[in-house]
Each structure stands twice: as structure tokens, then as C-alpha cells.
Write a structure and sequence with these properties.
Layout lengths: L3 H36 L3 E8 L2 H8 L9 H4 L4 E7 L4 H12 E3 L5 E2 L14 E7 L1 H4 L12 E7 H7 L1
Parallel strand pairs: 2-6
Antiparallel strand pairs: 1-2, 3-5, 4-5, 5-6
Helix pairs in contact: 1-2
Amino acid sequence: MLAPESVEQAVDGYEQARPKFERFATALANLLTTLLDASDLQYQQITARTKTVESFREKITREGKDYSDPLVDLTDLCGIRIVCYDPATVPRIGNIISNNFCIDSRNSVDKAQLLDPDRFGYLSVHHVVSLEKRRAGLPEYSPFAGLKAEIQVRTALQDAWAA
């Protein structure tokens, strides 16, 4: 667990970096909208969010968690949620994500894999991504080079259940 002074340094660092993560989330949402619209896949919505400072503080001080550098270790400081209609669309969106981003497979997870086959629960697929080198070199994306975000893909029914 981080020492209290390290927690305050990390929180101050996130507070300063948060506007950049907000811009990154917006850029990702716009990019994903373009990619999905070009693929003719049907989806309900794409939303962007950035972790609040309070939520950041709570997560880095959570019992049993040990972050040496929370601004690097946390992979969900900003994220996108894509809600689609059909369960068969979820892996197709996953392919688009895999083809257009660098995937952090160690931190990405299909929550359905964590449930017993006869159980229903939180079933979202989480892709932790960063910009691929080619895209990160473009002027409009270069400020976000090296940043990570979490893209959650789920159906409208799964979204309603999670809410």
C-alpha cells in the first residue's frame, strides 16, 4: 500500500493529468465511432468517461492493492463503453479494436470467462488498449502516445443488467 505522502503525490499527479485523459477518451470515442460506422456494424451507443479524482484516490488506497506508480499501473483512467444489440457483434467489435490498437492482453479480460457456464452476471469484454505506433505518430493523436484506456464492449441487455 502506498504511503500517505505517496498517495497525495499520485492524486496531485492525476489531477494535473486528468484533462489529457479526458481529451484522450474523447479522441478514442470519435475514432471508434468512425471505425464502427465504416464497418456497418450496428451499435446502440459509444460513451467516453474519465475516472474522477475521488475514484482514483479510492482505487489506489483500496485494501490489497499495491501500485508502485498508479498513473502507469492503472489502465482504466479513461475508457470507452460500446453498447451493441446482438451478442454476435461483440467479438466483431473486438476484431476491429484488435486491428486498430495495441492490446494489453495481460490487463484485458472477457468477464464471461470468469463465470461458471450456468451463471449469469457481469459479462462485458474489457480491452485495454494504447494507440498503435503509426496512429500515435499523427499530430492529432501524438499527445496520447503511451497512454492506455479501457474499451468495454457489451450488449444492451448486459448494460442494463450491469446498471
